[in-house]
Design brief:
Layout lengths: L1 E4 L4 H10 L5 E3 L17 H16 L3 E10 L6 E2 L12 H11 L7 E12 L2 E13 L15 E3 L11 H7 L1 H17 L1
Parallel strand pairs: 1-2, 1-3
Antiparallel strand pairs: 3-4, 3-5, 5-6, 6-7
The structure holds inosinic acid (IMP).
């Protein structure tokens, strides 16, 4: 079975392919001749994931799944949320984003936050969504060198290392994206067997 993963990030594609059952082959956007930017103009994480999956299905006729992720901070009413990548501006700098976040949270005792990933799957003309959440807190300074995005300031509940300090395997097990992907894989297995 072939299915498109609507991403231009080849590392993400490889990572997800490595945990897919062997009978599911992932195709990239390039593999199907999609070289344009897939639109993500919605104002929710769910909306963007659905928009991307439906765009590929409509324009290219392929079954497809797409993901979208955001960091939701309780005391900021869920911001940066769907705008996580460009929180501090269009330059999409992780350093600038974290600096802005830490400054917004100065003197705020409630540091609760969660990462949320939504995967939208368009399969056989039906739409399904899978949501993975990882709860934690924003610490007061950046710690760790691994990972990307907000990893150095995010301390997942029940752990004493930030996402940027822990091994990728552990992050994938407890993390938002890994949880959403496990649900997707479970669903695809059930659908096929
Ligand atoms: P995307 O939807 O996966 O492109 O993620 C949007 C933005 O959320 C990224 O640019 C990062 O700023 C942030 N982000 C997503 N996933 C993670 C993660 O696992 N760790 C830290 N930041 C993340």
């Amino acid at each position: 079975m072939e299915i498109v993963f609507a991403t231009n990030n080849l590392n993400k594609l490889k990572e997800v392919q490595s945990i897919m059952p062997t009978h599911i082959k992932l195709l990239s956007l390039k593999d199907i001749g999609c070289f344009e930017d897939v639109p993500e103009t919605q104002n929710t994480i769910e909306g963007n994931a659905i928009q991307k999956a439906e765009y590929v299905k409509t324009q290219f006729g392929h079954d497809c799944f797409a993901d979208d992720t955001g960091l939701e901070v309780a005391v900021l009413d869920g911001s940066p949320g769907v705008y996580s990548a460009r929180y501090a501006g269009a330059q999409r700098s992780a350093e600038d984003n974290m600096t802005k976040l830490l400054s917004e949270l100065q003197n705020k005792p409630n540091r609760s936050a969660q990462f949320k990933t939504v995967i939208a799957l368009s399969l056989n003309n039906e739409l399904h969504t899978f949501t993975g959440i990882c709860k934690g807190a924003i610490i007061e300074e950046k710690l760790g060198e691994k990972g990307f995005g907000y990893d150095p300031v995010f301390l997942p509940d029940g752990h004493n290392q930030t996402f940027a300090e822990m091994d990728l395997a552990l992050k994938n097990t407890i993390g938002h994206r890994g949880k959403a992907i496990s649900q997707l894989i479970h669903f695809l297995n059930r659908d096929i067997t």
